[in-house]
């Protein structure tokens, strides 16, 4: 079940205005260019920002996300014959044999790789991605380094903002961690619409896996030549992980 942050129609429509700086995607575009990928699978595509960038470069892309409200925004944003969107999971995509071996690269941007809390679900996701990649294709995703303890910065004092959104007026939001249980970090993300006072609460949990665990599960899914790089937009705080199918 997607978090309210992504599945509620009103929240999905303010997602981009509340987070307009997507320079985090530059590293993905550089890798995509470097491996000369022409077809890209965006797992957890959200509102389609990466898909929009890819189609502008003339690449073919499929975005998949279980949050229908986010996909609705993506379809409005990206009007291109090069783009396709699916409401569901990558396991759903891989269930269609016609999708097997059709993509040069699969990406999981932002927190997508960390939403898979159960080991079996995480491995099933990786195996589904591998099925969809051509031989020699690539997977790329990011994850936060547990040693950085980034969740300690997820407080209302450090994350609070009020943004003017066209058609909505002032929208207020923040992030507050509510529980840390080993590798699992749970946090709340309230969003308040000042125009009518509506408050929509979303609760999320992310898993902070170790480097060894990530490399092991990639190997178990059949990936090879795993590279663990420093995350360019957050050096020392996260990893950018690249592997071959």
Average of pLDDT:
96
Low-confidence stretches: none
CATH topology heading of the largest domain = Rossmann fold
CATH class of the largest domain: Alpha Beta
- Strand percent estimate: 25-35%
Provide a short characterization of the protein structure.
The protein is α/β, with parallel strands linked by helices. Helix content is about 30%, strand content about 35%.
List keywords for this structure.
245 residues, alpha/beta, Rossmann fold, 2 domains, 7-stranded mixed beta sheet, 4-stranded antiparallel beta sheet, 9 helices, 14 strands, 30% helix, globular
Architecture overview:
- By secondary structure, the chain is of the alpha/beta class.
- It has two domains: 4-145 and 209-244, 3-Layer(aba) Sandwich (Rossmann fold), CATH 3.40.50.150; 148-205.
- It has nine helices and 14 strands.
- The protein has a seven-stranded mixed sheet with strand order 3-2-1-4-5-14-13, sandwiched between helices.
- A hairpin with a 2-residue loop joins strand 8 (176-181) and strand 9.
- Helix 2 packs across helix 5.
- The radius of gyration is 18 Å and the shape is globular.
Secondary structure elements and their pairing?
Blueprint: H1 4-7, H2 9-18, H3 26-34, E1 39-43, H4 49-56, E2 60-65, H5 68-77, E3 83-87, H6 90-94, E4 103-108, H7 119-132, E5 133-144, H8 156-159, E6 161-165, E7 169-173, E8 176-181, E9 184-188, E10 191-193, E11 198-200, E12 203-207, H9 211-220, E13 224-230, E14 238-244
Parallel strand pairs: 1-2, 1-4, 2-3, 4-5
Antiparallel strand pairs: 5-14, 6-7, 7-10, 8-9, 9-12, 10-11, 13-14
């Amino acid at each position: 079940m997607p978090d309210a942050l992504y599945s509620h129609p009103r929240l999905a429509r303010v997602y981009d205005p509340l987070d307009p700086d997507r320079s985090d995607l530059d590293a993905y575009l550089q890798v995509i260019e470097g491996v000369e990928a022409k077809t890209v699978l965006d797992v957890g595509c959200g509102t389609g920002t990466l898909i929009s960038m890819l189609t502008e470069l003339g690449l073919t892309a499929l975005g998949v996300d279980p949050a229908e409200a986010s996909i609705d925004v993506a379809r409005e944003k990206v009007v291109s014959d090069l783009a396709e969107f699916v409401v569901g999971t990558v396991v759903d995509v891989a269930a269609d044999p016609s999708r097997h071996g059709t993509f040069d690269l699969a990406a999981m941007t932002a927190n997508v790789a960390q939403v898979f809390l159960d080991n079996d679900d995480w491995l099933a996701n990786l195996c589904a991605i591998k099925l969809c990649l051509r031989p020699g294709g690539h997977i790329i995703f990011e994850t936060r380094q547990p040693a950085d303890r980034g969740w300690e910065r997820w407080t209302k004092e450090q994350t609070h903002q009020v943004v003017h959104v066209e058609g909505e007026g002032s929208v207020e939001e923040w992030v507050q961690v509510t529980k840390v249980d080993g590798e699992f970090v749970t946090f709340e993300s309230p969003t308040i619409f000042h125009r009518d006072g509506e408050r929509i609460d979303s609760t999320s949990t992310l898993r902070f896996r170790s480097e060894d665990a990530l490399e092991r599960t990639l190997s178990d899914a059949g990936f090879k030549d795993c590279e663990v790089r420093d995350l360019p937009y957050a050096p020392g705080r996260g990893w950018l992980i690249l592997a071959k199918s």
